[in-house]
Amino acid sequence: MTVLELFGVSKRFGRVNAVNDVSFAVERGDLLAVIGPNGAGKSTVFNAITGIYSLDAGRIEFNGVRIDGRPTFRIAAMGIARTFQNIRLFRFMPAIDNVMAGEHARLHANVFASMLHPPSERREERQARERARELLAFVGLERAADVQAGSLDYGSQRRLEIARALASSPELLLLDEPAAGMNPREKESLRELLHAIRDRGVTQMLVEHDMSLVMNACQRIVVLDHGEKIAQGTPQAIRSDRRVIEAYLGTGA
Fold this sequence. Notes:
The chain is an alpha/beta fold. The protein contains ten helices and ten strands. Helices cover 39% and strands 25% of the residues. Helix 3 packs across helix 5 (119-138). The longest helix is centred in the middle third of the chain and has 20 residues, at 119-138. The protein is globular and about 55 Å long. It starts with a strand and ends with a helix.
């Protein structure tokens, strides 16, 4: 079943076509990578999917419902979560509070309940905290629950961002360069985590430059170059595609 589909998506910045007539589908259970050289339009695609950028042409559908033009919080509430290329944690808050912040879209308590603390609000708060602890354990940070996010090492901060994104119970998780800055051991641990997330039934898309991680973790790959899709397929097919080799090595036709 198709979870997400892009139809002729285009986005311009002035005279620059950041993304030009890009179409592809993400199937339920996919672990799909979007790759390409710097400036290929990868993060622009993510920003278009999550409502940060409006489209100049085309449309985007999530579970058959058109989402382009909707505000970001509506798209998140529909079941799409993401991380960013640059880590965006609440650095002076404990790790567990960072994860609980990601649960906000699924909580029911309103402002008055938060002020008066009725039994229903306290119960929901307790359940949210338990859920946050479970997610911290899932990403290997169970001992860091009360540690300030900014005090964690780089790899742990990346994992914390993923836990916070998972806290909204997404159906589709977008990961923007999750392996950036990681050492080989951390990247292998990340690969295992991506597979564990897939086993939980969460469909994933990632933008990533680490080709070893992409080839060993992902089922399908979409390749962009200068804002256009030049290839898509399995890792085996992409590895031998002449257009992809030229885009990365800059060789002539």
